[in-house]
Each structure stands twice: as structure tokens, then as C-alpha cells.
Amino acid sequence: MATDTNETKELHGSCLCKGVSYTLSGAVREISHCYCSQCRRTHGLMGSYTRSNWDDVHFTNKKTLQWFRSSDSAERGFCNTCGSSLFWHRLDSGYVAISAGTLDQPTGLKVAGHIYTDDLPDYYSLPDDGMPRYGTTSDGKLDGDLST
């Protein structure tokens, strides 16, 4: 099971053009690689996400942040200038998933597993990394990943 980490360390992140920048001040979850059709279309192959409580996300700039309602239950945040995919948010929750690639290095995070592998594109084979794999959601086994 993925665990929260970085409880005392701040993490910083931004989009490519810096029109959106943020600081995470609380615990974050290890990384889940998601291969659902929405993440594939948003990121090109997979979405790599950590997670934080909304209360622990502090924007230093959100001038270009825009939200897209990607389903009946979720929305995705992106930069309307450079196009960077930044966030995924289930509307009825107090947390936000953060695109791991937008975090400044080093993060200290590790990959916890792969979800929605049933949607894996035919041009890609999962690495033999020993991480758990789930055909759809892990139903919380990766610390609360939820379907997109």
C-alpha cells in the first residue's frame, strides 16, 4: 500500500511557463501511474500522480490555471498558456492529485504501482518493476486512488 510521505518537507511545483506555481506543505502520497483513457489522452501515455489534501496546496501563482470538467465526478486543472496538465480533482473529495512531473526535483517520492492497466495502449509494455498492477482502480490499495 502506498503511504503518505514528506510530512515535514515542502514540495514546490509549476507548469512549464510558470503561470501556475504552487507549494505543498503537508503529507503527499507516493506515485501511481494511471493508464486510463483520460490520462493517456491528457499526458500522452500515462498520468503519474501524487496526492495531497487541498488544504496543503498553496498557490504562489495561478494566473493561467484553468479547470476542465472531464467527467461527472472529476475535473482536471491545466495551464491555459503552456498546456501543462497539473491536477486531477474528484469533485466530492478534499484532496487533489498532482501531476508528478510538475514537481521540482528532488521529490523523495517513489512509484507505488500501476492502475487501469486494462487500458494500456497496444504500443506499450509495462516495465518489469515488481510494482503492483491493477486492471482498473486499486480500490484504495494504493492509498486512495480513484477512477478518473
What would you note in describing this structure?
The relative contact order is 0.25. The protein contains one helix and twelve strands, in the order E-E-E-E-E-H-E-E-E-E-E-E-E. The protein is mainly beta and 148 residues long. Strand 8 (65-69) and strand 9 form a beta hairpin. 5% of the residues lie in helices and 39% in strands. The chain has one domain (4-119): Metal Binding Protein, Guanine Nucleotide Exchange Factor, Chain A, CATH 2.170.150.70.
Itemize the secondary structure elements and their pairings.
Layout: E1 4-5, E2 11-14, E3 20-24, E4 28-29, E5 31-34, H1 37-43, E6 47-53, E7 57-62, E8 65-69, E9 74-79, E10 85-90, E11 95-99, E12 111-115
Parallel strand pairs: 5-12
Antiparallel strand pairs: 1-4, 2-3, 3-7, 5-6, 6-11, 8-9, 9-10, 10-11
Helix content: under 10%
- Supply the CATH architecture: Beta Complex
State the low-pLDDT regions, or none. Answer: 1-8, 144-148
Query: What is the CA-atom radius of gyration, in angstroms?
Result: 14 Å
Biggest sheet statistics: 7 strands, mixed
CATH class: Mainly Beta
The count of β-strands is 12
**SSE pattern:** EEEEEHEEEEEEE
List keywords for this structure.
seven-stranded mixed β-sheet; Metal Binding Protein, Guanine Nucleotide Exchange Factor, Chain A; globular; 5% helix; mainly beta; three-stranded antiparallel β-sheet; 12 strands
